[in-house]
Write a structure and sequence with these properties.
Largest sheet: 5 strands, mixed
CATH architecture of the largest domain: Alpha Horseshoe
Strand content: 5-15%
Catalytic activity: ATP + protein L-histidine = ADP + protein N-phospho-L-histidine
Shape: elongated
Number of strands: 7
Order of helices and strands: HHHHHHHHHHHHHHHHHHEHEEHEEHHEEH
GO molecular function, one term: protein histidine kinase activity
Enzyme class: transferase
Protein name: histidine kinase
Helix content: over 70%
Keywords: ATP-binding, Kinase, Membrane, Nucleotide-binding, Phosphoprotein, Transferase, Transmembrane, Transmembrane helix
Distance between the termini: 165 Å
Strand order of the largest sheet: 2-4-5-7-6
CATH class of the largest domain: Mainly Alpha
Number of domains: 3
CATH topology of the largest domain: Serine Threonine Protein Phosphatase 5, Tetratricopeptide repeat
Structural class: alpha+beta
Length: about 600
C-alpha cells in the first residue's frame, strides 16, 4: 500500500507537467493557425484583382450565353495584361475579343478594341499596324458619332506622331484648339483634363512654361470632375517648375510621395515613382545641390534598369505564360466559342441550301424563258429581214417610178415651145426630184429612222442644177446633221422652191459666179434653217420689198404652207441677194406629219 502511494506521488507531478505542456502546445498551434489565416495569406495585387474581375465577367458571359459579355471579358483580359512587357498576351486576348465583336452589329466597343490594339502595336514599335488599327477605330467612332471615341483616338494619334514619328509639338498640336471646341460643343468636358495633360507631356522637354500652363489647366479639370491621376500630374508639374528655376514652388507641388510609397513593388507604382525621382533630380539641380541631384539621378537610373529588366523578363517568358494561361482559362471558353461557330455554320448551311434551291428554280425558269425568247427572236428576225427586203423593194420601185415621171416631164419639156409651160414643168420636175432623193436615201441607208441633212441638201442642190443646166457654188453650215424623214420632206420642198427661185431670177444676167449658202442647226429647243443666194438683178419684180409677203405664186404658197405646218416663223430679206430664215420649235417638228 505504501509502495503504491509512493508511485502515485512520483507520477502525479509528471502527469501535471505533461498536461501543462500539452495545453501549451495546443495554444501555440491555435495561435499559429490563427496567424496563418489572419496574416499569412498574400494580399492580391491590384492587377490580379482586375484580372479576376475580367475573368468573372467572362464566366458570367459563358453562363448566360451572352456574346457581348464574353467579348468584354476578352477585351478586359487583354487590357489588364498590357502591363510591363506583356503585349503578346494582350494581343492574343484582344484578337479574340475582336473576333466576337465582328460577328455582332457594329458598336463603340469594337472601336475601343481596335484602339487598344493600336496602342499595343505602337508599344511593340509596329507603327504600320498601329496606324491601320487607329484608322479603323476612327472610322467606327465617326460612323457611330461617338465624341469620346473620336477624342480618345485624336490623343493617341497625336502622342504617337510626336513620340514615334518625331514630329514637333507645334505640328501635332495644330488641331488642338479645334478639338477642344469640339469637346465643349459635345458636352464631354471631363475629357479636357486628359487633353491638357497630353499637351503638357508634349511640351515638357522643349517649352516648360507652356507645359506648366497645360498641366495647371489639366489639374483644374481633373479636380472638377474627379478623374485623372493628380499625383502623377503634380510630379510632371514639379519637374517643369524646377526646370524654370522655381525649386520652392516645385517642392510645394511635389508633396510627400505617399502615392507610390503605399506599395512601391507593384508595377503600377513604378512609373509614378520614376516620374517623382525625375522631378526630385531636377529640383536638386535647381537648388545647386549636386550631391543630392547625383543620388536622385542614380536612383532614377537604377529604377529605369529595374523596369527594363522586368520588361525583358516578361517579354522572354510571355509566350510560355500565354500558352499556360490560354490552357488554364480558355478550355471551356473555347468550347463555347466553337459551339457558337458551329451553330453559325449550321445557319449558314441552311441558308445556303435555301438560296441554292431558290436559285435552281430561278435558273430553270430563266432557261425556259430564254429558250422561248430565243425561238421568238429567231422568228422575229426572219420576219424582220423579210420586212426589210419588202421595204427596200418598195422604196426602190417608188424611186424608179419617180425617176420615170421626172424623165417623162423632161421629155415633155424638150418638146414644148412655150416658155411659161416649160418653167412650170421644170418646177414640177424639181419637186418630184426632192421626193425622189428622199426615197433614194431611204433605199441606200440601213437606218430609216433619220437621214443625213447635209447629204440630203447637197443632193437637192445638185439635182436642181442639173434640171436648170447651170452649175453653182454651194456652202453648207450644218449642225445636228441627223433629221427625221417628216422634217426632211418639209425642208426639202422649201429648199427646192428657194433654189428654183434663185435659178430663174438670181443667177442670170450679170452674175457669173452664182452661189448659195445653206445653214441648219438645232439649239435650245429651236430649229433654224437659213438660205441665202447672191442674186444681183435688182430691176426684177422679185427684188421688190413687198413681193414675198404679197405675191401668191404656187412656189411661195408652198413655202408658206410648209413653214406653217412646222409651226415656225419665216422672213425674207435682201442683203446682196435673197435671204430666207425659218425658225420653229424643235419639238413641233417631231410630231409633224408630211
Amino acid at each position: 500500500m505504501y509502495a503504491k502511494l509512493e508511485v502515485i506521488k512520483w507520477l502525479l507531478p509528471l502527469s501535471l507537467r505533461s498536461i501543462s505542456m500539452f495545453m501549451r502546445c495546443l495554444i501555440l498551434l491555435f495561435l499559429w493557425i490563427y496567424a496563418t489565416l489572419a496574416f499569412g495569406q498574400t494580399k492580391p495585387s491590384f492587377e490580379s484583382e482586375k484580372r479576376k474581375a475580367a475573368t468573372d465577367i467572362f464566366a458570367e458571359g459563358i453562363e448566360e450565353q451572352d456574346s457581348l459579355k464574353m467579348a468584354e471579358g476578352y477585351y478586359l483580359l487583354g487590357k489588364y495584361e498590357s502591363g510591363i512587357g506583356n503585349f503578346l498576351s494582350t494581343k492574343y486576348w484582344i484578337n479574340k475579343s475582336i473576333a466576337i465583336y465582328k460577328r455582332l452589329p457594329i458598336s463603340v466597343q469594337l472601336g475601343k478594341t481596335y484602339q487598344w490594339l493600336a496602342f499595343v502595336e505602337c508599344s511593340r514599335k509596329n507603327m504600320k499596324e498601329a496606324v491601320a488599327y487607329s484608322d479603323s477605330a476612327l472610322v467606327i467612332f465617326k460612323k457611330l458619332n461617338s465624341p469620346k471615341g473620336i477624342v480618345s483616338n485624336y490623343m493617341f494619334v497625336t502622342d504617337m506622331s510626336h513620340q514615334y514619328f518625331r514630329k514637333s509639338p507645334a505640328v501635332v498640336l495644330k488641331d488642338f484648339d479645334a478639338m477642344v471646341l469640339y469637346i465643349i460643343q459635345n458636352n464631354i468636358e471631363d475629357e479636357l483634363g486628359f487633353m491638357y495633360q497630353m499637351k503638357g507631356d508634349l511640351w515638357i522637354e522643349t517649352d516648360h512654361q507652356a507645359a506648366v500652363e497645360s498641366f495647371l489647366k489639366a489639374s483644374y479639370w481633373f479636380n472638377k470632375y474627379g478623374n485623372g491621376n493628380i499625383n502623377a500630374l503634380n510630379y510632371r508639374l514639379a519637374y517643369c517648375y524646377a526646370k524654370l528655376g522655381k525649386p520652392k514652388k516645385a517642392r510645394q507641388v511635389l508633396g510627400d510621395g505617399s502615392f507610390y510609397n503605399q506599395d512601391p513593388e507593384q508595377d503600377q507604382f513604378l512609373f509614378p515613382k520614376l516620374s517623382r525621382l525625375k522631378a526630385e533630380t531636377a529640383i536638386f539641380e535647381a537648388e545647386k545641390n549636386w550631391l543630392k541631384a547625383y543620388e536622385m539621378q542614380k536612383k532614377y537610373t537604377e529604377l529605369q534598369d529595374e523596369i527594363h529588366t522586368k520588361e525583358q523578363n516578361k517579354l522572354v517568358s510571355s509566350q510560355n505564360e500565354l500558352d499556360v494561361t490560354a490552357l488554364a482559362l480558355s478550355q471551356e471558353k473555347e468550347l463555347m466559342l466553337q459551339s457558337e461557330v458551329l451553330r453559325a455554320n449550321q445557319k449558314k448551311q441552311y441558308l445556303f441550301y435555301s438560296v441554292g434551291g431558290i436559285l435552281l428554280v430561278f435558273a430553270g425558269t430563266f432557261y425556259y424563258q430564254y429558250a422561248k425568247s430565243k425561238k421568238l427572236a429567231r422568228q422575229y428576225r426572219q420576219i424582220s429581214e423579210k420586212n426589210k427586203l419588202l421595204i427596200k423593194e418598195q422604196s426602190h420601185r417608188v424611186k424608179n417610178n419617180l425617176q420615170v415621171i421626172s424623165s417623162l416631164i423632161g421629155l415633155q419639156i424638150n418638146r414644148l415651145q412655150h416658155q411659161d409651160l416649160k418653167d412650170l414643168l421644170e418646177e414640177m420636175q424639181g419637186r418630184i426630184a426632192v421626193m425622189s432623193l428622199l426615197q433614194q436615201l431611204f433605199y441606200e441607208t440601213n437606218d430609216t429612222v433619220e437621214i443625213d441633212a447635209k447629204v440630203y441638201f447637197a443632193q437637192i442642190v445638185d439635182k436642181t442644177a442639173i434640171i436648170f443646166n447651170k452649175s453653182i457654188n454651194a456652202a453648207f453650215l450644218i449642225e445636228n446633221e441627223q433629221i427625221t424623214p417628216n422634217l426632211a420632206i418639209h425642208l426639202g420642198i422649201i429648199l427646192n422652191e428657194l433654189l428654183t427661185n434663185s435659178f430663174k431670177y438670181a443667177f442670170g444676167f450679170d452674175n457669173p459666179n452664182p452661189s448659195v449658202e445653206i445653214a441648219f442647226k438645232v439649239s435650245d429647243n429651236e430649229l433654224t434653217f437659213e438660205y441665202k443666194d447672191n442674186g444681183k438683178n435688182g430691176q426684177l419684180l422679185v427684188f421688190e420689198k413687198e413681193y414675198y409677203s404679197t405675191y401668191n405664186s404656187f412656189g411661195l404658197s408652198l413655202i408658206r404652207l410648209k413653214s406653217s405646218e412646222l409651226g415656225g416663223t419665216y422672213s425674207f430679206m435682201h442683203d446682196n441677194g435673197l435671204r430666207f430664215i425659218l425658225k420653229c420649235p424643235s419639238h413641233e417638228t417631231k410630231s409633224v406629219n408630211s
